[in-house]
Amino acid sequence: MNFLHQLLEKQRPLFEKGGKFEQFYYVFEAAETFLFTPPSTTPARGAQIRDAIDLKRMMMTVVIAMLPCLFYGMWNVGHQHYLAIGQEADFLTKFILGLKHTLPIILVAYASGGLVEVIFAIMRKHPINEGFLVTGMLIPLVMPVTIPLWQVAVATIFAVLVAKEVFGGTGMNILNVALTARAFLYFAYPTEISGSVWTFLGEGATTVDGYSGATALAIIAETSATKGSNFMPGAAVAALNSVSWAPGLFSFENLFMGAIPGSIGETSTLMCLIGAAILIATGVGSWKIIVSVFAGAYLTGLLVNAVAVNAYMDLPAHYHLVIGGLAFGAVFMATDPVSASHTETGKWIYGFFIGFFTIIIRVFNPAYPEGIMLAILLMNVFAPLIDYYVVQANKNRRLSRATV
Amino acid sequence: MSEVIKLKKGFNINLAGKAATRLAEHTPETVAIKFDDFPGLYRPKILVKEGDAVKAGSPLFFDKAIEKVIYASPVSGEVVAVKRGEKRKPIEIVILCDKTIEYTEHRRFTISDIANISAQDAINHMVSSGVWPQIVQRPYGIVADPDIAPRNIFISTFDTSPLAPDFEFVFKGQEQYFQVGVDILRKVGKCDVHIGLNAGAEISKVFGSVKNAKLHRFIGPHPAGNVGVQIHHIAPINKGDIVWTLHPYGVIQIGKLFLEGRYDASKTIAVVGSELKQPQYYKTVLGANISKLIANNLKSEHVRYISGNVLVGQKIAANGHLGFYDHMLTVIPEGDKPRFFLTEGWLAPVVKRLSFHRALGLLSFLNGNKEYVLDTSTNGEERAFVATGTFEQVVPMDILPMHLIKAILANDYDGMEALGIYEVVEEDLALCEFIDVSKQPIQQILRQGINMMRES
Which of A164, A291, B304, B451 is most buried by its number of CB atoms within 10 A? Predict the structure, then answer.
């Protein structure tokens, strides 16, 4: 591989100061460091050896942790399609159909976001950061498969620009970039990201009798709204189980497995847990955040159960953990180290409140069927405040020591 | 014996090339005193010029901020170079060594003399003989001011850094000097002397039975042996506190000054590292030239010579000199080779390179007690701070390193002070620099912060 490196190095003068493509230096740098760990050595003073880790490897770990969700999601896109039109299909057919409709979304997200990254790297003269490896994968996974590609591009560009670059780029952002993209679509183009958009049906396809593309969240919300306070205990679960066009679609087991309508990558709690296992085992994702989001959601679920006055409040707490995007958000979105709380104590508080607000938004807010997105964005905003108090406590310990 | 202070946080870096317990004599051609070894120097006034003959203990320079403290020649010989850099900034003074060392003779004290000497007389004796720069004050990690009394004095008697010399071997048989050094320090500091002992090894023959000092035992991974970490757990440094720290070498040197009447700069060092044929100990002298130590002793050609350990040391040339406070020479391979991303780079599984992390493909945590051959590659490029919560895992102190570093970068003086900048010097955060995913120069940033606090 040495000849390739030498070939690249021969081009280096073109990109260095005074070279023809001077302004593209960081594009060159990104390409070269992608292929080769650079021959840079430690400075004369300070640590003379360095850990084997680098940011690329760390980000790659997150991408790999997302792969189970992605592959399952691809299969599920096909599965939901054939379920809706009432046809049988084998595993591969379903997967390939999903692949065909998912891949363009992924490519568009990477291309549009990557373009913004490159432009800013050139303008601001800073290296292209590896963080987008993760963001570019997260965005497709939280989109419905029917999303128009131009909307993916617009949302990604908006998110990278407004959520990240205006704050100074990677490491400086306050909001989670991928969730900002989704929130943007949610408020700018609500019809394409809510309602019956979760299943790809195809042109002129006829659906099975009684078909409805509603998600579990929508069914529960509707049950709750129509029945009001005259609900029977267990009405929400009964409504989920009475889906007539596909029996057992919203059974607890199936909700956990994830063969249900929803965004591409977020339906399967099981796959999210596999991702969580990878993130926790490698130490890349904070287990404190993941655990505390689930704990916060579960405890809040129990709390609203105890004082239930409608069907949604009565929904068993463990159902909350498997419906909607809670698991995906807890594992991949809340753990984004930049927008999460930076202190270890803060991570517990931050995660717990994400879980708490998710359930509160789901149960009490009729406008938004899903709460995790807004809960994480809200806690992103509060994370610096949490950190402030944790850091202040450290400072106070030091001060009180001095006065004793 | 006091109870054992157990430290859990930290990380041991187990490198190949440990010193065999064998001692050889080494007489260097030249020695040098390098000005960069004293980060607190204000404006040094050099007292010698090229061609001057000096004795061991003759003053070479002093600092205009603390005029009475002289920095002495470690050997007798001829000053062959006074090197200066830009704006005549002094870099080093090089002395060609005599065959046999002649000493500046000082008064010899008996044990009863030492008991009766006044604190001021002892200080005057120390500052004018060359031993004083061994006393390093915290905050800031600079040579102590003899006019400011410390709150406490701290001595760590073991070193947990990679390939560190074994003090039991290096200071064997020096108990008497160490005891006298402790007694003198207690007298001149008018305060308690705290000594950190290694609870992970047998009771120290050299340090374990020292009197007139408070003994504390520590156990844990590196940096448990750092005096800064020990201070934090014994009596942490608060705003306004001054404490003194000494390496056992400095304590023994003080003891020798009083008992023998000489500034004795002889030093036993460990010459270690994976690229040496025979890593072992050498009895040499402070600031010794290393060329004879490495001649015919190298396994490979493309290596880096480090004065000190691999975490806080300094790169020196093949004919360079050891640093003033360093007790080891480490030789490791240079790592200036590109690595293809699929075969050795960021997508490949890595077994041979040590990592504190377990991110995908980093398998070194499976290796147990394997000894590593690590090179000087940065293993990646400098990036913005992204990862959180890892620095805290290698700093066994109630300090938030990431927040401290960010306060320094933001020029936030109040923040630095409140987050504990007085408690740390470079070596205490060196592991953060090693494990940092973003490859930031943590130690350099910390020193900038310390300098900002000193100048404010």
Answer: A164
What domain count does chain B have? 2
Give B50-89 pLDDT, tens digit per residue.
Answer: 999 999 999 999 999 999 999 999 999 999 999 999 988 9
How far off is chain A from B207, nearest CA to CA, in Å? 30
Cα angle at B316 between B293 and B22, to 5 degrees?
30
Rg over CA atoms, chain A: 23
* Nearest residue to B367 (alpha-carbon basis) of B347, B351, B350: B351
Cα–Cα distances in angstroms (integers) from residue B307 to residues A49, A175, B40, in the given order: 14, 45, 19
* Residue B361 placed within a domain: no
Query: Rounded to the nearest 5 degrees, what angle is found at the Cα of A166, between the Cα atoms of A163 and A168?
Result: 105
* Chain A / chain B CB contacts < 8 angstroms: 229
Question: Which of B314, B337, B402 has the CB atom closest to A44's CB atom?
Answer: B314
Q: Which residues pair with B243 in a beta bridge?
A: B138, B152
Q: Do B332 and A48 touch (CB under 8 A)?
A: yes
Please give the Cα distance from A283 to A277 (Å, whole number).
Answer: 10
Domain end among B197, B231, B260: B260
pTM of this structure: 0.91
Is B205 domain-assigned? yes
pLDDT digits (tens, 9 = 90+) for A293-305: 999 999 999 999 9
How many angstroms separate the CA atoms of A27 and A126, rounded? 10
ipTM of the complex: 0.89
Q: Do B95 and B75 meet the contact criterion of CB atoms below 8 Å apart? A: yes
B317 Cβ under 8 Å from any chain A Cβ: no
Does B402 lie in the same domain as B253? no
> Domain range for residue B443?
378-455
Q: What is the mean pLDDT of chain B?
A: 92
| Triad A172, A174, A180: Cα angle to 5° | 120
Integer Cα distance of B302 and A214 in angstroms:
66
Q: Is residue B268 part of a domain?
A: no
**DSSP 3-state assignment of A185?**
helix
